[in-house]
Amino acid sequence: MSDLVVIRGGGDLGSGVAIRLWRCGFRVVILETDRPVAVRRTVSFAEAVYQGRTSVEEVPGCLVNVEQIPGQGIDADFVPVVVNPDASLISALEPRAVVDAIMAKRNLGTSLTMAPTVIALGPGFTAGVDVHAVIETQRGPHLGRVIWEGGAAPDTGVPGEVAGKEYSRVLRAPASGSVRTLRAIADPVVEGDVVAEVGGLPVQSTLSGFVRGLVRDGLVVSAGMKIGDIDPRGDPSLGSLVSDKALAIAGGVLEAILSGRR
Fold first, then answer.
1. Alpha carbon of 155 to those of 14, 137, 139, 152: distances in Å?
2. How far is the first Cα of the chain from the last one, in angstroms, to the nearest whole number?
3. Residues 137 and 176 in one domain
4. Whole domain around residue 180: which residue ranges?
5. Residues 48-68, buried b or exposed e (16+ Cβ, 10 A)?
6. Which is it for strands 117-121 and 97-100: parallel, antiparallel or unpaired?
7. Which three-class secondary structure state does DSSP give residue 167?
8. Is residue 161 one of the residues assigned to a domain?
9. Count of domains forming the chain
10. pTM for the structure as a whole
11. Are strands 53-56 and 146-147 parallel, antiparallel or unpaired?
12. C-beta separation of 242 from 138 below 8 A
């Protein structure tokens, strides 16, 4: 059986899945859009679309041309990232599994017929209908569990708690417009510091800590969109680590692939 897994979406959760599978000996290909949006950019292989190459926890990721896939692009010693938003490459790759990590909270075209095992992260999918398995992404006792019938818990809209902070740690766009970043990921901040501007309006930190995530400078966003994340734990090195949430979800993906259950 093929050892290739295709992941749709190279944000922090999809990248956490990619790293765990890659370290377990699977070949991994990440499919992305031509302008991906990632908040936790230091742990997102999606950044390779802009930079050509990146690394997550010392695992290299490189942008690969569509013409190189299939072929040498999937046999390299790095995680290949391909701009292929419609996932048209999947049929040519014939992977063992496909993982939908787009995190759109709705199905954007992933289907049961894409691979022997098709897995989706979070709400918006029904196991047995859209995909073979769904992985729970809501923090709590069910995080990372494999769901073979039904779907994940509905989106609550409540950010995951970090050091007792929920809503206050998330930075959102006050208006629609272009983002101008004034701080960098890992920078220390105190409550009230202006971290970015959107359409000329300031985005202030509502607590003290360090910048854990921040979208790319110049990105055009819509009002209310999450554009940053402040970590109150005071250890900037945590910003370059795959989160406990991503690793738990990745464990569920690995279980779903290896179990062979349908």
1. 18, 9, 11, 9
2. 16
3. no
4. 167-232
5. bbeeeebbbeebebbbbeeee
6. parallel
7. helix
8. no
9. 2
10. 0.92
11. unpaired
12. no
